[in-house]
Design brief:
Elements (H helix, E strand, L loop, with lengths): L20 H14 L5 H39 L1 E2 H5 L6 H19 L11 E3 L7 E7 L9 E3 L3 E3 L2 E3 L2 H13 L3 E7 L12 E2 L7 H16 L6 H24 L4 H31 L5 H21 L1 H4 L15 H11 L2 H10 L4 H9 L8 H10 L1
Parallel strand pairs: 2-8
Antiparallel strand pairs: 1-2, 3-6, 3-7, 4-5
Length: about 400
């Protein structure tokens, strides 16, 4: 499971991890040009770069990038230093405890997991929402062919994020009119892939220790290793490191007899069960789509298969799950877009666990291996499979 941040079955049950890097890139170069006291020569270089990049990118995604970029700048301008907040007598003790926990998690990410050491999660933003971004994904109605959005320099992504819900709904409606299955997921965090100092947001104070730790480790994995046009690998890796890293952190901090550790184990086990059920549904539908059945019949059978899956889960809920994390699944939207994006995060997680055992369950050594893949042009998962056969 990519995320277990919120204690209910909701759109945030899967985390869409990063906003498109090109939008962040434009703003980053703008800040370099106009906000930092560089020499004239360096300023000219940055301004030439931003002009070239901006003209190229805005030609393709102008209004979208400008609008979403506005929100990134606004949130960054509101960010407060965590260290300064800890020294502020007006900050509540609960918030200070949360910020101290974030600092511990960051240190663990660098020292024990081998993730990149940068200034991510050293700042805090007060926000009047309980999530950050709405993300649209889409797939063919009778095939698991994901719709993608492509950007110069940064590659293609099977999702597109919006800070305003109405913009996401407009995009989803447009794709639905083309006959695609669509899904709008609520997102708790994203990585700007090093262009900005990614902050902590106020709503994250409500997360469990496992929730905030897995979030930070997931996003820091993206900041450490991110391969262009290898989205499934990127998300599977971040999902694995986020989950296993958070579990190890909790065991180190609280012990394996603690409530925090037991609750994390239960959440992971339920997540595994949920993904097993979704993979089973995915395979049943994929078999249907490849059959010679007429399209009208496929549409009818598709809905029956999905509804039967929901009915089975709700009827046998206590046999499948140990928590109430997925108790609302009977009312949840399930279509090709939902299933395809779930598979993006978890389809081949088994190979990462096999590699974990090969490295004697040492996540830091694993990350050292993954860092060597950054410049590879071949399928990184095939490289992993080859290593497992050595």
């Amino acid at each position: 499971m990519a995320s277990l941040v919120n204690a209910n079955y909701s759109d945030s049950a899967i985390r869409f991890s990063h906003i498109h890097g090109n939008m962040a890139g434009i703003i980053y170069f703008a800040q370099k040009c106009f906000l930092n006291p560089y020499s004239i020569g360096i300023i000219l270089v940055y301004c030439i770069r931003i002009f070239a990049v901006t003209i190229c990118i805005l030609f393709f995604q102008g209004c979208y990038l400008l609008k979403q970029g506005f929100y990134i700048i606004r949130y960054n301008s509101k960010a407060q230093s965590i260290d300064k907040m800890l020294g502020n007598s007006h900050i509540s003790q609960n918030t200070k405890d949360f910020l101290l926990l974030v600092k511990e998690i960051r240190s663990y990410a660098f020292d024990s997991l081998g993730l990149i050491e940068n200034d991510n999660y050293t700042r805090y933003v007060e926000i009047d929402k309980d999530y950050l971004v709405d993300v649209v994904s889409a797939s063919d109605e009778l095939a698991f062919n994901q719709h993608t959005w492509c950007y110069p320099f940064f590659g293609c992504f099977p999702y597109k994020g919006y800070f305003e819900r109405k913009d996401a709904e407009k995009q989803a409606s447009k794709l639905s009119r083309k006959g695609l299955d669509t899904y709008i997921g609520r997102v708790d965090a994203f990585s700007t892939l090093g262009f900005f100092k990614d902050p902590i947001y106020s709503f994250m104070e409500e997360y469990s220790v496992f929730g905030i730790a897995s979030l930070i480790f997931h996003e820091q994995t993206h900041a450490t290793v991110f391969l262009k046009n290898r989205i499934q690998f990127n998300e599977e890796l971040a999902t694995f490191i986020g989950t296993e890293g958070a579990l190890r952190f909790i065991r180190m901090k609280y012990g394996d007899g603690s409530d925090a550790y037991r609750n994390a184990i239960l959440a992971i086990e339920d997540s595994d069960t949920y993904m097993m059920l979704m993979r089973r549904l995915y395979k049943r539908l994929a078999k249907l789509y490849k059959s010679n059945v007429p399209d009208d019949k496929k549409r009818e059978e598709k809905q029956k298969i999905i509804q039967n899956c929901k009915n089975e889960i709700m009827e046998k809920y206590n046999q499948f799950f140990k928590t109430d994390l997925y108790s609302a699944i009977g009312k949840a939207q399930i279509n090709n877009a939902v299933l395809a994006i779930r598979m993006t995060y978890t389809l081949d997680l088994d190979i990462y666990y096999e590699l974990y055992e090969l490295y004697d369950r040492d996540l830091k050594k694993m990350m050292d291996f993954f860092k060597t893949l950054e410049k590879c042009r071949n399928d990184p998962k095939e490289i992993i499979r080859a290593k497992l056969k050595e």
